[in-house]
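Async update (no meeting this week)

Hi team, since we skipped the sync, here's where things stand on the single-chain job. The sequence we agreed to prioritize is pasted below, unchanged from the tracker. I ran it this morning and attached the output directly underneath so nobody has to dig for it. Comments welcome in thread, and please keep replies under the output.
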Amino acid sequence: MDHSGDDLPLDRFLDREEGWLRFNQRVLELAEDTSIPLLERVRFLAIFSSNLDEFFMVRVAGLKRRLATGVAVASPSGHHPRDLLSRISKVTRELMLRHARCFDESVAPALAEAGIRIVRWAELEDTDRRRMRRFFTRSVYPVLTPFTVDPAHPFPYISGRSLNLAVTVRDPRTARRMFARVKVPSVLPRFIELHDHRFVPVEDVIAEHLPELFEGMEVEAHHAFRVTRNADLEVDEDETDDLVQSLENELLRRRFGPLVRLEVEPTISPEVLDILSNELGAEPEEIYRVPGPLNLAGLSQIADIDRPELTFPPMVPIEPRPLTGDDLYAAFRAGEVLVHHPYESFAATTERFLEMAATDPDVVAIKQTLYRTSGDSPIVDSLIEAARSGKEVVALVEIKARFDEQNNIQWARKLEEAGCHVVYGVVGLKTHCKLALVVRQEDDGSLRRYCHVGTGNYNPRTARAYEDFGLFSADPEVGADLTDLFNHLTGFSRKRDYRRLLVAPTGLRDDLVRLIRNEIEQHAQGAPARIRVKVNSLVDEEMIDAFYAASRAGVPIDLWVRGSCVLRPGVPGLSENIRVRSVLGRYLEHSRVFVFENGGRPEVWIGSADLMPRNLDRRVEAMIRVVEPDHVSRLVGLMDLAMSDDTSAWRMAADGSWTRATRDDAGEPLLDLQNTLRGDRHLRVVDV
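Output:
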């Protein structure tokens, strides 16, 4: 059979950007779901807004840059970037208005019924206004800086994602009108709290006191607005002698990136909008009129209110049974241990493993990749402690991790100061794999390697909210693989073949295509054949064509995709054997799992790679084969549970639309996947 894709329909790919927007729409649908605890709905509204900011800062900015530089090639779906930007604008406007309606008509009234109110200045009573005036004088006025625009004062720079007030003032002596801008300082909370869980938008407090900023002038009007700018970084690693310094310079430049979106409230006057448009260089299609308040990413402040009855019931991560003893090394020597976060404790497994290695006098070396973590992480502290105690510590820090660049630079320097060998990855690639290698001298004098390969970052904060897997192993083959890979990352090597790892960019793409083609061959021979994949994004054209080829050959394929998916499932003659599901909920589904039936002897892989060109071609990724029969069964069972028609999930249609299924034909609730996986249910008196 021809697997080249030459005989496949030209419209077999959906738009990646629209696919991502449909993912964010699913986040919004969670906020609209009145069966979800109220403060969790508030959090989903905040996540939607934050997600959309990043979409404009990166994806829309990238399309605009392609147009500006003349690199206006069509997208995989065949759309020219200009047409695609127009389509994106239409969809985003619809979603932003839907988001505002959800807040205004559903969430805000429900909050008020629960005793949590977001009130505008006009709704405040005199006592509250006096309280807000005292707060303004004490905590707001000292950090405000009004900028007037006139021949002596050019239009000020408007930083990305900042909330601002456009103010029109009039000089009563000369009758001259002037424009001014007042930035809402980022040090202020998004909402100013009164008592009894009542909150006032910070811009309302500032707006009421504008006469104090423009004393002697008449404040005629004020309008809130917000700018989103291009925040993508461009560093030519081949042309720099100091990657860290170049990146820091680029981070400074990011603040001045070109505008990609101007958000204004519908009440803005035409005159003020003209001033903003002209001074900021905003084209009409870049202007978004959105019912206030703007910047609802700040709703995370409301979501954090201590009202347990309005949030998901607490979940206590359990400790995996093999690791309940005192000797983790003995547990790993007895057999590999698969852990599933956040259901199983990150602190009692991954953190404990590295803390133990740092203080163990028999450990001689620790090697670790760090993509995103927190500067106050116990893992960073463990690496510092290990280095200070004389151990050989190598930390491979990815300082190009988007939006974490500055944080990563800071704690990378902290590691260097402690004596760690800090490596900033491979030129031209991002190091995205999740690996830890501990070398220990055993009682018999030999050296043994203890390994961890994960699907998620070594970040204790996100480990409480991100769903991920980690595999602990003392298998000599895994130890040899990690040693080889670290040597590749810190030195010079073009090693391609490993024992139990698949590694990008040297071989992962070809290996995955080989595994897919093996399923086609198994099916042709009458042997059991099936493909099950769980990823965050599926946008790589070659991989999608490989799935299409397998489907056309009769191989059933189940794809569990959290985010953007540009494959069209269920198309006759192309993908009728492919089903696509998406699960969103309390935890962010983040793990990557690949299951190939292999004639009844399943091959199961977990790791860091999504099916995107950047992951397969421009990042260092690692997938490890899971070999313990119990672990294989566990992962196969998880995939089957997620894809079951009895499980609540979004189901994707051939046109790219998603339909959420929460009840069966009889009206009974479908299974909640994440709640089913909780291991702490036996700890609760009431089953939830």
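Quick observations from my side:
The radius of gyration is 27 Å.
The first helix runs from residue 16 to 32.
Reply here if anything looks off.
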